[in-house]
Amino acid sequence: MDLKSKAKDLREQIRRHDYLYYVLNSPEISDFRYDELFRQLRELEADHPELITPDSPTQRVSEAPSEGFERVSHLVPMLSIDNTYESAELRAFDSRVRKGLGSNDYSYTVELKIDGLAISLIYENGIFQRAATRGDGEQGDDVTANVKTIRSIPLKLNNPAAGRFEVRGEVFMSFSAFEKTNKLRDAQDRQRFANPRNAAAGSLKLLDAKEVSKRELSFFCYGLAGAENFSAKGHFAALNRLKEMGLPVNPEAAEAENIEQVIEIIQLWDEKRKTLNYPTDGMVIKVDSFEAQKKLGATGRSPRWCMAYKFSAEQKQTKISSVDVQVGKTGILTPVANLEPVELAGTTVRRASMHNFDEVERLDARVGDTVLVEKAGEIIPQVVKVLRDHRPETSERFLPPKECPVCGSQTAKDKNGVYLVCTNPNCPARLKGRLVYFVGKGQMDIDTLGPAVIEQLIEKGLVKNFSDLYGISREDLTSLDKIGDKSAENILASIEKSKETPLWRFVKALGIRYIGGQNAEILAERFGSLEAIMNASAEDMEAIDQIGPVAAASVKEYFADAENRETVNNLLARGVRPYVQQSGEEKPLAGKTFVVTGTLSQFTRDQVKEFISQNGGKVSSSVSSKTDYLLAGEKAGSKLKKASSLGVEIINEQELKEICS
Ligand SMILES: NC(=O)c1ccc[n+]([C@@H]2O[C@H](COP(=O)([O-])OP(=O)(O)OC[C@H]3O[C@@H](n4cnc5c(N)ncnc54)[C@H](O)[C@@H]3O)[C@@H](O)[C@H]2O)c1
Ligand SMILES: [Zn+2]
């Protein structure tokens, strides 16, 4: 690849990952790998400035606007921050600062990098006026009504500066609020948030401020815009002044004389941050003096006086022993590296995804290579870097296969040119992948149907699509290997149970590209019925918050296919009944069955029954496998025993109230 194509490729990759991360909320690669792609582009552009395009991600901050909010201009641009994972690069940053200032006479403030989203707050004569997200750096979304629900943000400042005054900070969700939010979502049978950053961003973009107030968001103020007019001379003093004014400032900010002290402080926090009740993903280092900051200035994307050091997820070095190609539910071929086993974040890792063949080429990963692997957050283990110095002399490039490893049909690039797919629409690997996903947890939840059974059902020609699952008989099942009467019965019972399912889980289970849990929930909430979703136009869908053109087109395409419509109609004909929760937010116990036992202290029996039904739940008199919760008071007896033997969740009155709060 020539350099120009390489720069273009990197820009396109970064844009694609921005979309996956910011819009779809489902990143494919870890932050470390993303930042590595970003660094490669930055270095390429630094060496060959003629390759820079004005729309390059290195030149500006980019974040798509959200619908439903007014766009407002920032008084002073809200920029990003350059980042690194290495202390050596902090020293290089320090040299640039020294050179830029032409002196040694400066110091740093070191702060925790809170993992939420940036917000600008404007006060006028000390009275809160407006809050906005960063957006593209010039213009953000006006989220004033939502931000007003965050209790720690003062609506009126103590001893305010006169006139207009803008502060910046991070809105975030503490780990305890995050747990609580997800517990509530479980109870409502809704998709969990993947992490606190995701939860904070999703909550701040809700259109109903009342709902936002339930999410317990928090805020730390870390700076101000237009420092010239401020009484403090530097950043650390300004933080103290902001605190006096009543703004919540993170208590851990520290001063450092020089870069070596900065590095010491950072090393301390790499461990210590694990004890905090809020998410951090690094440290932010700022040249303290405002005068020096002004002298150093900024690029179109980030200030030159500021640098983020990011803590990386645990990484290990190992070797690629071979590469397998897996065929997934949409026919996509994924290269998976088989590794010499390594212990990583508490588990033994033997395989790591490389996502697609372009990524293999970008990494230039080869069999026999020594690589760095990482397990970041919810993302499956992945190869993030090849250590070229360790490469054996004889290594060969790993080339994309011309034929599907499962059915032998030809492969081709998909229409976006990113993935290699098997061109056979009836490839058995596709069908298996789709069925395994369909029955999976969080979709139809038919947990007794494992991949091995599904494979046999396909091989015997008993199941050719989703709806066939609802037509299999006891005899079909017992004709399979290792399935006796008892397991056949269990499988049939869980297939039966799955017929009653929230609409969004049903839509998710169909496995439509770009429609994960969050998008499926939005579609279900907005359209209210399966029929309405099936007949919606792409414009109808795009008109909805958060559903972008790519996702809308994908849904449209799915339901335009006659075979898909037939399968869905057959599912309905066989008794699958996707239901819509009546305003899920208000009814936290919707679809849940309770049994009450023992002596309660906060409710009478009648009161508790009413409380549960008001919150959308049902109360039944005996414990069975259909019971979702046993509410147990003092001196609970046989019901408690039965519930624990069936694995029914047991809660007390306080926990019941918390789920409904
Ligand atoms: N995995 C992926 O596919 C993917 C895709 C896109 C972006 N990302 C991640 O997002 C990053 C880019 O996002 P970004 O531009 O918001 O950068 P960033 O989040 O890494 O850093 C800048 C932000 O840090 C925040 N911050 C927290 N504490 C602060 C403090 N004390 N002082 C100043 N700022 C503080 C501010 O909100 C600021 O906007 C990437 O580096 C990457 O890690 C990942
Ligand atoms: Zn195939």
UniProtKB/TrEMBL annotation:
User: Can you cite an annotated GO cellular component?
Assistant: cytosol
- What residues does NAD(+) bind to? D31, F32, R33, Y34, D35, S80, I81, E111, R134, E170, K286, K310
An example GO biological process term is:
DNA repair
Enumerate the residues binding Zn(2+): C404, C407, C422, C427
State which Enzyme Commission number(s) the record gives.
6.5.1.2
Q: From the UniProt record, which GO molecular function terms apply?
A: DNA binding; DNA ligase (NAD+) activity; metal ion binding
User: Which keywords, in A-to-Z order, does the entry hold?
Assistant: DNA damage, DNA repair, DNA replication, Ligase, Magnesium, Manganese, Metal-binding, NAD, Zinc
Q: Which CDD domains match?
A: BRCT_DNA_ligase_like (cd17748), LIGANc (cd00114)
One Pfam family, short name: DNA_ligase_ZBD
- Co-factor requirement: Mg(2+); Mn(2+)
Enzyme class name? ligase
What residue intervals traverse the membrane?
A: none
Q: Reaction catalysed by this chain?
A: NAD(+) + (deoxyribonucleotide)n-3'-hydroxyl + 5'-phospho-(deoxyribonucleotide)m = (deoxyribonucleotide)n+m + AMP + beta-nicotinamide D-nucleotide
Domain BRCT, chain residue ranges per copy: 584-661
Catalytic residue positions = K113
In terms of HAMAP family, this protein maps to: DNA_ligase_A (MF_01588)
Q: Name the job this protein performs.
A: DNA ligase that catalyzes the formation of phosphodiester linkages between 5'-phosphoryl and 3'-hydroxyl groups in double-stranded DNA using NAD as a coenzyme and as the energy source for the reaction. It is essential for DNA replication and repair of damaged DNA.
The family this protein is said to belong to: Belongs to the NAD-dependent DNA ligase family. LigA subfamily.
Stated name of the protein:
DNA ligase
Source organism per UniProt? Sedimentisphaera cyanobacteriorum
